[in-house]
């Protein structure tokens, strides 16, 4: 069990150093790290600066927190994230999310690269997550409840905030982005799914598939943050295209449409001014 007093003490230290409380938290997925360069950054530190924090090992994930401003709104951005398949416990995977909650973040924007299961989704599409299926990964709240963060049995009937989704749809319209909506399913990875697993996921009602996000959304809701999830379809899911899946292709595809994600995030921050 992680000692959460460490997070509280570190949060105090960072708050006094930067002199503001971030309102919005942003988690950048695979290949989206460059967006962080556009932030008016004030202070940056690596995840493992915090004692006992996991450090990401994945190529394309920097593994740092950036504190600063987007459109004059105070934010914190996680450039890179921790994945369950790296060998960390699910509790450790969501520690950075809990740290953001302790720092005072009210709204969390989770982005990811995902495989498209819904046949109407194309590579390059942005998908607003309406709900998720996390049944195939351990729940991040398993362990003694952290009462200072939230309840033992938190409600998950509206994980992804409808009002923020509507705002994102408006911003998409203004920017000519054809945004879709769908259910995200999280598997552990690191192997990509088999075509049979994708058929199962489709039968269960999933539209996009990935190896992150749902666990983070659960931890964020537990801690009372509003959540917005955006998947970027970087490939058709296994068996839906005559092509093998590779992390390199996922990263390349993510890079190509990073500008859409940037428009959504910057547009959203503008609405908070
Ligand atoms: N499956 C799982 N995770 C992914 C995929 C996929 O097809 N694409 C990007 N992340």
Structure write-up:
The protein has one domain: Rossmann fold, CATH 3.40.50. It is built from 8 helices and 9 strands. The mean pLDDT is about 95. Helix 4 (about 160-175) packs across helix 8. With about 270 residues, the protein is an alpha/beta fold. The termini are far apart. It has helices spanning about 5-20, 90-95, 95-100, 160-175, 195-205, 215-220, 245-255, 260-270; strands at about 25-30, 40-45, 65-70, 75-80, 105-115, 125-135, 180-185, 210, 225-235. Strands 5-8-7-6-9 form a 5-stranded mixed beta barrel, surrounded by 4 helices. Strand 3 and strand 4 (about 75-80) form a beta hairpin. It is globular. Bound molecules: hypoxanthine (HPA).
Based on the model shown, name its key terms.
Rossmann fold, alpha/beta, 5-stranded mixed beta barrel, binds hypoxanthine
Map the helices and strands.
Elements: H1 4-18, E1 24-28, E2 40-46, E3 64-70, E4 73-79, H2 90-93, H3 95-102, E5 107-116, E6 126-133, H4 162-174, E7 179-186, H5 195-203, E8 208-210, H6 214-222, E9 226-236, H7 247-256, H8 258-271
Parallel strand pairs: 1-4, 1-5, 5-9, 6-7, 7-8
Antiparallel strand pairs: 2-3, 3-4, 5-8, 6-9
Bound molecules: hypoxanthine.
* Percent in strands: 15-25%
Our count of domains comes out at 1
Shape: globular
Count of strand segments: 9
